[in-house]
């Protein structure tokens, strides 16, 4: 009977998860602004807390920070809309240049007796996918940010109620001596630390990329800098996705030396920020394996589009922390995390 009950509970749990995922995909227009509101709220709790420590009331601190964030978000939405429009108009020209470049490479391969079976190089390697990804990602993110009123109203009320959340959790968990409050506090603080530090280092990355590409003379330098800022939230894979369109564009617009300079710029910025600055400031890694990061990027991107790609790591971190808090689901946290260190055997 006990075995049947466990099987029934497992089936119901899986069915519930699938139902939630289906509902989230159908209701993207509501789910995405809500998740972005949580994401923004976590980031701006830092300046809100600073203003409150300076003696300002909670209402004033929340109001002024939300107002500044609102202007910033409107500016980003307008910038993305304009940049995406200009880039979309330029894509046919770049596609023609790509076709010519790939044709030259095909001829070079044939000249050196290197044949590709039943296809040309442009069919085996399609750089248009990179341009299409950049355009669709930026356009999709711009459409999400255009829903600024709903997002910022949600952020405003979340921050107003945020300081009461510990009291509510304590009331729910009163009989268990605050264990739930401790777990929730750990999860929220860990996520807040990661997102806040990642936002700062991503901003620095985007600024340096924009300045460097402007000096090199690449078109849409600000757009590629913003893409580097956004995709830097995705560890390891994000920097590669951000660099690919800019490197490809430099191949079409500029020469070989400039392309190498663009590649060197991305390598230098990401090595310094990702391998030196972030570990020194953050003090610990994200706690997810590279495979988990990649699969979360694919899964959340499929479920929620560009916004899901942006939030893939924080969402997966929350799932991992939640799984760690329950002994029955700790196996999931182990699978999502990096490989544990091998236990040292003690020789007798």
TrEMBL record:
Pfam families in the record: AI-2E_transport (PF01594)
Highest taxon listed in the record's lineage: Bacteria
Cellular compartments per GO CC: membrane
Subcellular localization(s) per the UniProt record: Membrane
Membrane-spanning parts: 7-24, 30-51, 58-80, 137-160, 199-218, 224-248, 260-277, 289-311
Keyword set includes Transmembrane: yes
Primary residence: membrane
Keywords, ordered alphabetically: Membrane, Transmembrane, Transmembrane helix
Annotated membrane topology: Multi-pass membrane protein
Keyword Membrane set for record: yes
Gene Ontology biological process terms, A to Z: transmembrane transport
Family, per entry: Belongs to the autoinducer-2 exporter (AI-2E) (TC 2.A.86) family.
Entry-linked PANTHER family: AI-2 TRANSPORT PROTEIN TQSA, TRANSMEMBRANE PROTEIN
Protein name according to UniProt: Predicted PurR-regulated permease PerM
